[in-house]
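Input:
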Amino acid sequence: MTIIETKNLTYTYPGGTKPSINGVSIKVKKGEFVLITGPSGCGKTTLCRCFNGLVPHFYQGELKGEITVAGMDPTTHETHAMAKSVGLVFQNPENQLFALSVEKDVAFGLENLGMPREEMRERVEWALKLTDIHDLRERSPHEVSGGQQQRVAIAAVLAMQPEIIVLDEPTSFLDPLSAEKIFEVIHELNKEHGITVVLVEHRLDLTAKYADHIIIMDEGKVCFDGNPREILNTEETRLIGVGIPKATLLYHILKKEGLKLGDVTPLSSEEMAKLLQEAFKIK
Amino acid sequence: MSVFDGLKFRKVYSPIHNLDPRMKFVYVCAMFVAAIIFGELIPLIALFLMPIPFVVLAGVQKEWLRSLRGAAFLAGFIFIINVATSFFYSGNVLTAVDVENAAAMTLRFVVLVESFSVFFLTTSPDHLGLALEQSRVPYEFAFAFTTAVRFVPVLAEEAQTIMDAQKARGLELEKGGILKRIRNYVPILIPLIVSAIRRSLELAEAMESRAWGATKKRTNLYALRLRRGDFALLAITVGLLVVAVYVRLYVPIPAVTQFL
Ligand SMILES: Nc1ncnc2c1ncn2[C@@H]1O[C@H](COP(=O)(O)OP(=O)(O)OP(=O)(O)O)[C@@H](O)[C@H]1O
Ligand SMILES: [Mg+2]
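Output:
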């Protein structure tokens, strides 16, 4: 079942000279883990803003083409109506938390929806447990670490029980270890709870292994769209400046040098290690 | 960072901190009324002493003394003005009664400051924000208040970072005359304002994405509920008002100078 579909989506910010996204047509299936990547300024964030209607409601300007997200058209539904189905998590954890305690922040969206208190309590507890920040609930959001703040932001979105979570470079302010933890949380939400995940990321080393589907953008256009193992193995992706996982690069080089390796392109160091073990066993 | 430490708030638990802020506010208003209806020194001394048990229960003696010290300058000023006025008014003579009246006026001011400071010293910002949310104040104001509290330390830290960065580039803040010094702060203010605007845009975006404005009937994770302490405070407040009005109407208040 398709949950996000865009046809020929084109958008220019007010005052902009050229479109920030240009003729984007993509399809995302329900329950998928989609990775969007591409060089800086290629329009990834802009595309994410389309998913819940920040573009065009918040940013104004004209959006051309068709878009359907969770059965709704974000151009005609207000962002707060989309918020129940699509949750956005942003880059800077500090600027998306506003309350004076973690649990109050997680409840913010539910309060806005006017949910009764008992139900809200349950949802907040549930979201705090899933993201493993239950101990922090009475702390002030600016007194916890960046990684924890980002988990609060995820919990806040999660509490609204959306069908889709869109995360725009959620770890670019974090160290690799906290980043890995965040990705594990996201992976679990996708696998265990069936939430569709759209993740914008540069660090493919850490994330490619989770993806069912990868979309690579360049200069506002989609240039690759499909299975990560096939796409990351091509020469062209490297030329655009996509951060191909090191394991995939190594596989590529070794294969070119004539080493007999399995046919499945590895996306993480664990997969690469397995391939090498098998290769040496045969010899 | 020490300059900005005062801006951070700590969560403190004490019987006074746990009181409903709305009730505390009513109490402060009652103190105000009482301080206004008395111009005599003796009842004002009583009013001045009244908050002390609260201060001790809340364990904020140090902060309380600091706020009194802060008011001391203005209090001294009020005292001198009052004494001087009656001195010149009555033809360059100063009686003990004049001094007592001046002292009473000063003490009235101190009582006003004192009750306000006790309120703010014992009410955490999130409690206050909650009280705002659950009174008739529009939610936007309550939200603006809590967000401001939340971001003051962040902006303060940022100001410090920018200051350090500009100093490292050779900006000398403490140099020149007063005008030059004010101008020195421009390279700090501009980046600070720009970043605050960017921050507020990102905040607005995040709020929209979390269903801001979905319904007029917002609910709240926490409920403020009146408990036993709050009713005790209410009794004290009512008692204070009743006694104050009764004394004002039916009891002749002696001046301190009569006993001398
Ligand atoms: N608020 C805005 N107003 C005007 N133009 C914008 C705005 N935000 C982005 N742009 C422009 O749109 C284009 C795409 O930007 P976008 O932020 O979507 O890229 P991105 O792929 O997310 O980049 P990055 O990896 O750096 O986050 C850029 O050329 C940028 O200058
Ligand atoms: Mg971006």
